[in-house]
Write a structure and sequence with these properties.
By secondary structure, this protein is mostly helical. Helix content is 66%, strand content 7%. The chain is built from 6 helices and 4 strands, in the order αααβββαβαα. A two-stranded antiparallel ribbon has the order 1-2. A two-stranded parallel sheet has the order 3-4. It is elongated.
């Protein structure tokens, strides 16, 4: 049972190992805000490399240590940044267009509001 746990939870355990190495060797300051987040990150990483039905679970994050833990365990393809995830879904270009159009429309509305505000009566 223990080999099955270790095999299926490699990324989470890798982050735990990193934490303890840092704590013992580097004098990790446990009072900083980001340190408390390690336990939560570890719990999330237990799902990396798994599936629901026939679909891989994908973690979307920029957290460097979470990505490094997944990489060390050979499941880095299951951890992506937001931009990588949009590319994975095949919608990166569409999202970029929406953002561009939204910004263009916002600027247009601001120009109209400014003109209306300073319009002479």
């Amino acid at each position: 049972m223990i080999p099955a746990f270790v095999s299926s939870c490699q990324a989470g355990l890798s982050l735990r190992q990193f934490f303890w190495e840092q704590f013992i060797n580097e004098g990790f300051d446990l009072t900083t805000k980001s340190r408390a987040n390690f336990l939560w990150d570890e719990q999330i990483l237990y799902y990396v490399g798994r599936q629901i039905g026939n679909e891989d679970i994908v973690l979307v994050t920029r957290d460097k240590q979470m990505r490094a833990a997944a990489d060390r365990c050979g499941v880095s393809n299951s951890v992506m940044s937001y931009e990588e995830y949009l590319g994975f879904l095949g919608i990166a270009d569409e999202i970029a267009k929406l953002k561009k159009n939204w910004l263009r429309d916002l600027i247009r509305k601001l120009k109209c509001a400014i003109k209306t505000l300073f319009k002479k009566k």
